[in-house]
Amino acid sequence: MRFVYYDDYRPRSWSENGTVRGILVDIVDEAVGKRLGIPVSHLGYPWKRAQEMVKTGLADAFVTLPTQERRSYTVVGNEPIIVFTLKLATRRNHPRISEIEQIATIEQLKDYKVVDYLGDGWAQQHLKNMNVHWLSDIDSIFPFLIQGRADVVILSNRTIFEMHRQGYDPLIKILPNNLSSVSFYLCVSKHSSYKDEWSRLNPLISRQVVPKAPGRSWTSI
């Protein structure tokens, strides 16, 4: 079963010396390869190309957030493969930091300027009515926030990873509350021969390999 991934999506998936690595790769190996006994291969591409390959049937599947568009060309599982928690962060010297620390829901963000990057499917779906400044790439988010051009950013494990990697911890504070969560599902191309086995695979995945709480990884399933 041929899986494709975004090749620059650490720590979820990335290409390194011709090999795809990451959390999503580990999950597919465990859930589909080991527990369901289906041989799998992993290929990394720019995300737009990877999606197009699943859409046209050049690849069998990916693990991602099932947006309305992705549902149009894939068969999506009933249960998520993994659930990522989302945190809120702001610059440490923000004058309203005490107020921001009390935010516990997305609805409470309406009075603040949010920054995010284009391509964040969850944000584009859930922040439609918010004051969001969209940047072209993830690396631009943190300087934008520090400069005071936005109040907050919503962080997934990926953006937290990038924040640590780029050394912004002394300037940006991650708040303790879990603001929301994002669920990734196994999505099989409607052109894939494995689509016909979905009635067998789906309940097995739901019963055997689905994490039961946000933040649980495949190692604890």
TrEMBL record:
Upper taxonomic lineage: Bacteria, Pseudomonadati, Thermodesulfobacteriota, Desulfobacteria, Desulfobacterales
One Pfam family named in its UniProt record: SBP_bac_3
Domain of life: Bacteria
Solute-binding protein family 3/N-terminal domain location: 2-164
Gene3D superfamilies the UniProt entry points to: Periplasmic binding protein-like II (3.40.190.10)
Organism: Desulfosarcina widdelii
Protein's UniProt name: Solute-binding protein family 3/N-terminal domain-containing protein
